[in-house]
Design goal:
Number of domains: 2
Number of helices: 10
CATH architecture of the largest domain: 2-Layer Sandwich
CATH topology of the largest domain: Nucleotidyltransferase, domain 5
Largest sheet: 5 strands, mixed
C-alpha cells in the first residue's frame, strides 16, 4: 500500500458483547470489516459473559490478522489502534481493550477508546450519503433505546431514552415467551410475515416527553399469552403470525411516535436510525412512510452496520483522531452508558 506521512490508518476492535470484530479505515474510508460471531450462546437462550470473553480471547488475533490482510495493510503502517471502551460486558471489553492498548504501546502509536453508542450513531458516516448536522438518531438495540440530537461527531444530546428495558430486549423476551430460540428479535420479524398487525392490541405505555418504557409491554404480552393459552393450549401455534405481527407493530409504532414528536419539536428534518433493531424491515418501512408525510431526509444503515461491528468503531476513531483525542493506558471506563457530551 502506498503511504504518505499524512495517511491516517486506524485498526479498530469491537468486543463489547458476543461478536469479535476488527476493521481498518484509511483516511476515513473503510478497507475491511471482519466479524466473528459466537454461536455457543444460542443453547443458553442469551449471552453468557464468561463464555463470551473466552471466545474473544480465541478469535481476536485471527480476526485482526484477517482485517489487516483484507485491507492490504502491514501492522507497522498503523497510525492508531481503536477499541470499544464501553458500554458492554466487562470481560469482553477487557479482552479487546487490553489487546488494542498493548498493540499501540508496542508500536508506539496512540490508542483511542470509543463509546459503543456513539459509534452506532456515527455509522452513518461510513458511506455516502451522510446526514447533515444537526440530525436526530433513533438508537435502538438490545440494551439501549435513545433519541439523540447529533450536533457533531463529539457533541450529542439525549432527548429521550428508555426508563427501564430496551426495545431489542422487548423483542427478545417476547420471542422467548412464544417459545422461539435466541436471538428472538429477528425471528419475530420473520414469523410476522403474513400476519395481521392489528389482530391483537396491547395497552400503550405513557411516559413524559420523548422517553420510553417497555417493561409494562413485556408484562402485557406475558399475561396475554398466559390467559389465551388457558382457554386454548394451541393458541400460540395457531396464531403465531398474528401475535408476532402485533408485537412488532406495537414496538415500531411506539418507537416512531416519540421520534416524530422529537423531530417536530426540534424542527429537524435529518432523521437516522442505528443499532441492531435498525435492521428490522418494518421499522425501516414505517420510517420511510413517515418521512414522506414530514419531508424528512431519512438515513438507514446497511444491515451489516446495524448490528455490532468494528466499522462503526473505526469511523468514530477517525473523527477522534482528527480532534487529537487519544486515550491513556489508565483509561478503563467500561461502564459508560451515555452518548451525551
Amino acid at each position: 500500500m502506498f503511504q504518505t506521512k499524512d495517511t491516517i490508518i486506524i485498526l479498530a476492535i469491537e468486543s463489547s458483547c458476543d461478536d469479535t470484530a476488527a476493521a481498518v479505515i484509511i483516511n476515513g474510508k473503510l478497507r475491511s470489516n471482519i466479524i466473528s460471531s459466537q454461536l455457543i450462546h444460542q443453547k443458553y437462550g442469551g449471552v453468557v459473559p464468561e463464555l463470551a470473553s473466552r471466545a474473544h480471547q480465541q478469535m481476536i488475533v485471527p480476526v485482526v490478522q484477517k482485517s489487516l490482510v483484507t485491507a492490504a495493510v502491514d501492522i507497522t503502517q498503523l497510525t492508531a489502534v481503536a477499541y470499544t471502551q464501553g458500554p458492554g460486558l466487562m470481560g469482553s471489553l477487557l479482552v479487546g481493550s487490553s489487546y488494542a492498548r498493548a498493540l499501540s504501546l508496542s508500536l508506539g502509536i496512540p490508542s483511542i477508546g470509543i463509546n459503543h453508542l456513539k459509534a452506532h450513531v456515527l455509522t452513518h458516516f461510513i458511506e455516502d450519503p451522510y446526514p447533515e448536522w444537526p440530525f436526530l438518531c433513533l438508537l435502538v438495540s438490545g440494551g439501549h433505546t435513545q433519541i439523540i440530537q447529533v450536533n457533531s461527531p463529539s457533541k450529542m444530546l439525549i432527548l429521550g431514552k428508555t426508563l427501564d428495558d430496551a426495545a431489542g430486549e422487548a423483542f427478545d423476551k417476547s420471542a422467548k415467551m412464544l417459545g422461539l430460540p435466541y436471538p428472538g428479535g429477528p425471528l419475530i420479524e420473520k414469523c410476522a410475515v403474513g400476519g395481521n398487525p392489528n389482530k391483537f392490541i396491547f395497552p400503550e405505555t405513557k411516559v413524559p416527553y420523548f422517553d420510553y418504557s417497555f417493561s409494562g409491554f413485556k408484562t402485557a404480552v406475558l399475561y396475554f399469552i398466559r390467559d389465551q393459552s388457558k382457554n386454548n393450549p394451541d393458541f400460540i401455534a395457531q396464531n403465531m403470525a398474528d401475535i408476532c405481527a402485533s408485537i412488532q407493530a406495537y414496538i415500531v409504532r411506539y418507537l416512531l411516535k416519540n421520534l416524530e414528536k422529537a423531530a417536530i419539536k426540534k424542527g429537524i428534518k435529518e432523521i437516522a436510525i442505528a443499532g441492531g433493531v435498525a435492521a428490522n424491515c418494518s421499522l425501516r418501512h414505517e420510517l420511510k412512510h413517515l418521512s414522506k408525510r414530514h419531508g424528512w431526509n431519512v438515513y438507514l444503515p446497511k444491515l451489516a452496520y446495524s448490528t455490532d461491528n468494528a466499522a462503526m468503531i473505526a469511523i468514530a476513531a477517525h473523527f477522534k483522531y482528527l480532534e487529537g483525542s487519544f486515550s491513556g493506558l489508565d483509561e478503563v471506563s467500561f461502564a459508560r452508558e451515555s452518548v451525551a457530551s
